[in-house]
């Protein structure tokens, strides 16, 4: 039986520290933290109201067996460590094979598609739930569309989402952006977008996405707006959910 509800990877980073503070404030959640540096983990836990267990593990240099030894101790892995194309797959693989749930804050759709293609069948077999693109950008879009679909069903023909936000890029986000600009996206062997892979087949539910190409006036908001760099990523989260639930496009 798992010792923990959650093991958090990346607690010493910006997004990870926010996640850590949330977990520290939650009652009844038994969690541990995992990272590459004992000293940094100890420092981020200074003054904490409770002291979670600490595991030291470098995902890049550790063997898959070593990673599994940590992963099998929990019901769910939560990771904020990017670039996920570098640090994410060993955790996704371990979770998919062990039947452990996985959630991350990735905004990397290339990684998202790759993990679906490689591990969807494995996760279905083990019962693991692999939830990628679960950060601040994607969740509001995804839940809004899902909630409207639950409310309106087949009457729902489209959703327009406008967001007002103040945002800065953390060091991890900038590192990820730089890596993505330099890396080449691998081609899928499926012959179609892996976002639509469901139970080994292409979902019949495809989602048309129309993103703004420039500044325009939105009557609903009474002001001008324009494209957001994370728009395509947020749309991909919606595409995947729509396909999995066979929602009306």
From TrEMBL:
One of its GO terms (biological process) is glycolipid biosynthetic process. InterPro entries: NAD(P)-bd_dom_sf (IPR036291), Saccharopine_DH-like_oxidrdct (IPR051276), Sacchrp_dh_NADP-bd (IPR005097). This is Saccharopine dehydrogenase NADP binding domain-containing protein. Belongs to the saccharopine dehydrogenase family. Residues 6-130 form the Saccharopine dehydrogenase NADP binding domain. GO terms for cellular component: lipid droplet; mitochondrion; plasma membrane. It comes from Alexandrium andersonii.
């Amino acid at each position: 039986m798992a010792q923990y509800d959650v093991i958090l990877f990346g607690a010493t980073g910006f997004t990870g520290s926010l996640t850590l503070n949330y977990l520290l404030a939650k009652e009844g959640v038994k969690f541990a933290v995992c990272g590459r540096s004992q000293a940094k983990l100890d420092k981020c836990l200074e003054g904490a109201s409770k002291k979670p267990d600490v595991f030291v593990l470098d995902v890049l240099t550790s063997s898959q067996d070593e990673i599994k030894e940590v992963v099998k101790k929990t019901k769910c892995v939560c990771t904020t460590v990017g670039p996920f194309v570098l640090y994410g797959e060993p955790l996704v693989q371990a979770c998919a094979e062990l039947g452990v749930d996985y959630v991350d804050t990735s905004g990397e759709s290339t990684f998202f598609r790759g993990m679906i293609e490689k591990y969807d069948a494995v996760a279905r077999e083990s019962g693991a739930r692999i939830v990628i693109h679960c950060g601040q950008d994607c969740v509001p879009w995804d839940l809004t569309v899902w909630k409207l679909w639950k409310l309106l069903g087949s009457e729902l023909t489209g959703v327009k989402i406008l967001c007002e936000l103040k945002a800065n890029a953390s060091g991890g986000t900038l590192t990820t952006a730089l890596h993505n600009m330099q890396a080449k996206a691998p081609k899928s062997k499926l012959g179609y977008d892996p976002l639509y892979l469901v139970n080994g087949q292409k979902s019949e539910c495809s989602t048309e996405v129309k993103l703004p190409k420039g500044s325009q006036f939105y009557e609903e908001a009474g002001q001008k707006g324009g494209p957001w760099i994370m728009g395509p990523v947020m749309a991909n989260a919606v595409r995947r959910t729509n396909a999995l639930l066979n929602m009306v496009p």
